[in-house]
Amino acid sequence: TAENAAGGEIVEETVRRIQESKIFPDDHGLLRKIAYVESKDGTDKNTFRDPSSEAGVGIWQMDKVAFEDLKKQDFIKKKYADIKKHFGIDWNTVQRKDLNKPINAALAARLHLFRFSAPIPKHDKGQAEYWKEYYNSNHPNAKGTVDGFLKDIKSLKEPSSQDEGCKHGLRNPSKNCKCLCEPGYKGEKCDLPDCGCQPSPCSGNGYCGISDDGEPRCVCGGRWEGDCCETCPPAPIFGDPHILTIDGFEFDFFGIGTFWSCVSRANDFGVD
Predict the structure, then answer these.
(1) Is the pTM of this model over 0.90?
(2) Residue 258 class from Cβ within 10 Å (0-12 exposed, 13-18 middle, 19+ buried)?
(3) 8 Å CB contact between 233 and 223
(4) Which of 17, 141, 224, 251 is 20 to 30 Å from 9 by CA-CA measure?
């Protein structure tokens, strides 16, 4: 992307490229949100300030101290080879003035987040607190607040004149307002739970719903269990006998003889 390029489409394309590279763990949309909170996707008048400034530079507003720290930590340098492979960028030669290019600014921000062992939360409130503690806290002029973060990203979710809003995701404020869904949701409005089970939802043995803690989760039918309703415990036979079949049906049968719980049609294997 070109130097000083800005706007929602630029940000989303840049974030998409980084996500698809698989260099870093899933950030649950935080990198996208930081771009809007820090510089309104580069449309703020102070986005592309003089790189000699101590304050933030570029769409992701990386300040001087944070940028210099990226050059000092060996475990961060291990990512340089991946960046070179996927983006053709030699990070050893990147200077702060280069952060006026969106891909460099985004990579710097993602490298910075990678420094911390604390996992990135999935939801807005946790991400707002994470951003304030680990991203918006180094420079004396970092006056952002958790409430301010939440207020800013709300505009990425609210309806515009072109759509009806994104319930669990972010919209592109610059064009088309296409929803980018948070992990666990899908659909044009990010309003459908997605339990992430492949190739079929909940293995065909249940449905994807919302649990008591607000997380998308499979609701399994019959005796099926597991994150994707993929396992079923052995069916018990007890008493006179009382039989519970593998697919969850109950039978009572009082008789004398040998009774088979399961018999193969292909060979003589069976369970009695």
Answers:
(1) no
(2) exposed
(3) yes
(4) 141
Tens digits of per-residue pLDDT, 214-232?
Answer: 788 999 887 788 999 888 8
Q: What tokens does 112 get? A: 């910075």
Q: Which structure tokens are listed for 151?
A: 């207020």
Cβ pair 58, 48 in contact under 8 A: yes
pLDDT digits (tens, 9 = 90+) for 35-58: 999 999 999 999 998 888 888 899
DSSP letters for 11-80:
HHHHHHHHHHHT-S---TTHHHHHHHHHHTTTTSTTTT--TTSSS-BTTTTB-HHHHHHHTT-HHHHTTH
Structure tokens at 195: 């339990």
Count the residues in the chain.
272
Q: Which of 26, 23, 31, 30 is nearest to 83 (CA)?
A: 23
Q: How far apart are CA 108 and CA 151, in angstroms?
A: 25
State whether the Cα torsion 33-34-35-39 is positive or negative: positive
Nearest by Cα to 182 from 216, 152, 208: 216
3-class state of residue 199 by DSSP = coil
Q: What angle do CA 172, 31, 144 make, to 5 degrees?
A: 95
Q: By the 8 A CB rule, do 2 and 14 touch?
A: no
Nearest-5° angle of CA 148, CA 65, CA 103? 70
pLDDT at 176 over 80: no
